[in-house]
User: Which sequence fits this backbone?
């Protein structure tokens, strides 16, 4: 009984550690694979005197391709907190240095503001109705474009009438006196 119980106790402890030890839970079978890969990697470091390649690790671990080794190595990486202090004064954090790819650069933001101002200026030269139709159709109020039908309901007219108003307003905007003011933004 004692040899049998020892195995079950060891397995229960191993599973508890696998389930609880990481910030992001990894399935037990993957933890076992990671542990095996880590052991093989350590052996190869001792034998070769350098970090082994994924190909060398996959040769030692039968049945695992180099791509799978790379995937397992990615899964095995420990997460790092964005609040990790950087520098000696601890006044900055790792998160402060991560670029927001969605954010506009200051010059892009300034250019967009100038474009918005110019569009508003050009649209103010149209009738109130034409301006509102274009703003609704092209989503200049809230970023949501409206169909001819939706704009027609707002004005209590047919979609054909809205199409006519839109066409007339766009013709006015294409006039050189107005179009050249916006053309500069699109030549960049």
Assistant:
């Amino acid at each position: 009984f004692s040899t049998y119980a020892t195995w079950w106790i060891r397995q229960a402890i191993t599973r508890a550690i696998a389930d609880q030890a990481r910030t992001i839970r990894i399935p037990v079978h993957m933890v076992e694979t990671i542990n095996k890969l880590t052991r093989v990697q350590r052996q190869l470091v001792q034998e070769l005197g350098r970090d082994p390649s994924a190909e060398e690790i996959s040769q030692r671990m039968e049945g695992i391709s180099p791509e799978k080794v790379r995937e397992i190595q990615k899964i095995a990486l420990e997460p790092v907190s964005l609040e990790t202090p950087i520098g000696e004064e601890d006044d900055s954090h790792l998160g402060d240095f991560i670029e927001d790819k969605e954010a506009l650069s200051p010059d892009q933001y300034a250019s967009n503001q100038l474009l918005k101002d110019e569009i508003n200026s050009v649209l103010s030269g149209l009738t109130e109705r034409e301006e509102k139709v274009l703003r609704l159709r092209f989503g200049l109020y809230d970023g949501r474009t409206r169909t001819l039908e939706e704009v027609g309901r707002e004005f209590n007219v047919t979609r054909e009438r809205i199409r006519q108003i839109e066409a007339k307003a766009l013709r006015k905007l294409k006039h050189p006196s107005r179009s050249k003011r916006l053309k500069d933004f699109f030549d960049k």
Observations:
- The chain has two domains: 2-78, 106-186.
- Strands lie at 85-86, 92-93.
- The mean pLDDT is 87.
